[in-house]
Amino acid sequence: MQRQTDIPYQLLGQFSHDSPTQGALGDESDAAQAATNAYITTMFYSALSNLYLQSLLPTDAAEVDAQMPRVKIALERSFADFTQASAWLGAHDELINSSPAKEYYQEVMRLQKGAVKNMRTFYTPSDQQED
């Protein structure tokens, strides 16, 4: 009998390095546009998730480790997804203007720089953070 908690892992396992969002895209404009849309929506929803998760964090980082390990994992992963999508889009910015997800991209870009955080940046005072 399949456990309900196994389903997300099976779905994730169906992704492969052959998907259009992995590796070199070549000259296939449809694949490039699909990848751009995927990265923009990844960036948008990871930022949205990250900002929500920040609102759940207590003032003490030790409390997160002790009582909220899944929130910590989700915060770190949303930050990593945001960072990776942002880097890819930065390297392929010529594709953004023709994307139907362009408004999502513009909305995320209006966020204050550094608003999406990981645990380290969330618990480091802003005057001690690197730019």
Walk me through the structure.
- With 131 residues, the protein is an all-alpha fold.
- 59% of the residues lie in helices and 0% in strands.
- It has helices at 7-13, 29-56, 61-67, 69-91, 102-109, 119-122.
- Helix 2 (29-56) runs parallel beside helix 5 (102-109).
- The longest helix is centred in the first third of the chain and has 28 residues, at 29-56.
- It starts with 6 loop residues before the first helix and ends in a 9-residue tail after the last helix.
Sum this structure up briefly:
The protein is mainly alpha-helical and 131 residues long. It contains six helices and no strands.
Helix and strand element order: HHHHHH
Indicate the mean pLDDT: 82
Please report the total strand number as a whole number.
0
Radius of gyration: 17 Å
What brief labels describe this structure?
mainly alpha; 6 helices
Task: Walk me through the topology.
Layout: H1 7-13, H2 29-56, H3 61-67, H4 69-91, H5 102-109, H6 119-122
